[in-house]
Every structure is written in C-alpha cells, then in structure tokens.
Design a protein that fits this description.
383 residues, mainly alpha, Serine Threonine Protein Phosphatase 5, Tetratricopeptide repeat, 14 helices
Length: 383
Amino acid sequence: MRAELRGLSPEQAEIVGAHLLMAGQLMDSDPALAYRHAEAARRRAARLPVTREAAGETAYAAGEYAIALAEFRALRRMTGNDDFLAAMADCERALGNPDKALKLVKEGLRTAPDLTARVELRLVEAGCRLDLDQADEALRVLRQELESGGARGTRESRIRLRYGYANLLELTGNADEAERWFAAAAAMDTENTTDAADRVAALQGLVLEVDEDDLVGDERTEQDTDDEDDEDAESGEDDEDAESGEDDEDAESGEDDEDAESDEADEDFESDEDDEDAESDEDDEDFESDEDDEDAESDEADEDFESDEDDEDADDEDAESDEDDEDEDQLDELPELDDLDELDQAEMDAIAASEQEWFDVTSRDIDVVSEDEAGDAGEKGER
C-alpha cells in the first residue's frame, strides 16, 4: 500500500492513507461507515488498486453488492488476477443471477486456486445450485470437498466449509446431520467467528423463542395495571387527606376550647395573686411596725446598760483613787535615802521587809485591775 501511495503528494497520501486505515478498522464493527471511508479514499485516488480493493470489500460487507461487483471488476482489469472471483460470483448470486455466478465459479476453478479460494468457490456454487432447486447437487459438491480436502487448508476455511455444509443440511430438512456438523464447526471455532454454537443449541431445543409483539402486549398490560394501581393509590391518598383535614379541624376546635379555658384559669390565677400580694403587703407593714417597737425597746435597754456601765466605771475610779492614796501613805512611811547609813542591820531588815510587802500589795492591785479591765472588754464584746 505504501508503494502505491508514493505516487501521490504527501498531503494527499496522508489523507488517503487515513481513510484506508479507518476503513480496515471499521469493516467488522460498522461496515457502512467503513465503506464511506473507503469511498472517500477511492475518489481521491481512483487509479490505485488499493483504493478499489478497499471500496469493493467494504461495499460487499455492507451489502452493497452491485457496487462491490463493479469495484471487483475494475480491480481485476487493473491487476489481472482472479483473487476476488468468489466474491464476484457471490455478488451475482445476491443480485439474482445464479447462472452468471456459476460461470464465474468455473472460471475460478480453472485457474487451479489454492485450497482456501477453492472452498470459497465451492460454497458459492452450492448456494447457486440450491437457488436453482438443485439441493442434491449442492450437497454433493460440499460433501465431495469435505472428503477431498476437508482436513487441509486454513482453520478458517475448514470452519466455513463445515458450517456451510451443516447449514445446507438444515435447509434440506436433515436436522440430525446438521446438528452434528454444526457441532464440528463449533469445536473448531474457538474464537466464535461464526454462530455455530448457537445453531447447535437451537437444534437441541435449548433456545427460548419469544415473539416481540407478545412482549410488547405484556408490557402494555403491566403498564395498564400499574396505572390502575397508581390511580387507586392516589384515590386512597385523597381520602386520607380528607380525613386528615377533618381531624385537623377537630383538633383546632379542641385547641381553641383549651385556650379559652386556659385564659380563664390565668385570669383566676392573677386575681388570686393580687389578693395574696395585698395580704403580703399588710403583713409586711405589721412586721415593720413590730420591728420599730423592738428597735425602740432595744435602744432604751442599751441606754440603761450604758448608764450602769458609767456608774461602775465611776466606782472603779474611786476605788483606784483610794488605793493610790494608800500607796502614797505607805511610801511616806519609808525612811529617806539619806538616813539609810545611820540605820543598823535590824532596821535595814525591817525596811526591806516593808518594801517587799509594799511591792507585793502593789502587784496584787495591778493584777486585779487587769482582770477587771479584761472583764469589761468581754462584756462590751458580748453587747
């Protein structure tokens, strides 16, 4: 292909090559789109055999047999080879020309083709014989090919030969033999290039055939049933809504009565509270009056107590004054210091004893005064 594209400009070669690439990738999955790519390449480079071959093969895969036949004829004139005679014969058969197809098959067989091409020619010949109501001759052609070269050739050609023979057996009413040959083809077709396994299952009765019209009818029946159920459900919901509305009205009426009773109870409670507040105010006034009387009595008692304390303080001062006078008198009785040298030992001892007695008396008086002051402070603290 690259050698043929070298005669084009680089830009044109790139476009044509891209279309051919897409045609080859899409021929099995989307033959119609593949043919459009191949046709675009053919229009840009119609004199190149590669574009004619791509256009013929994609048109044949898409079911465009007249176009495919024209492209194959052009390719045969351009190249001079008979590689596509089987495809050309099948196109003539598809177009309703079995005699022309048989003529092309004979031309192909005279060229001593390889086993793969010969199998394709024999398959077309058997189909043409069947179209001409020559079923026995069709079976004989394929059986002879199986006996002579059924174990040779490529795996694909052997699978196609067995599948074609099984299909012909089924069409002629020999289901048991058809099942056996479909099973042989399925055993070899590990990549599932044919539907041989499905054909075996169908002959064994393992396929459930369902009429699509019946399915549509069932779906409509189910849909109608669902619609009726929805209508019933909606009707039930409306009834429930109506009942709910009545219940809401009754509930609102009951709530209004409860609100009225609650307002009356609140008014009675407020009236009771006002009465209690009035009574509480009177009690507060009486309590305040009693407190004023108690405060007056307490003030009088405090004044009397303070007067008693003042009298006691005056008595204490008089007693202290008397004691001070006594102490001064005792001090006066002591001899002067200047006369101490003239005294003898006995007199000194007497003076010392007198002084000691005076200090003892003074200490006791001080202790008594301290105790009295402490007692007075305690009484004041208690008050």
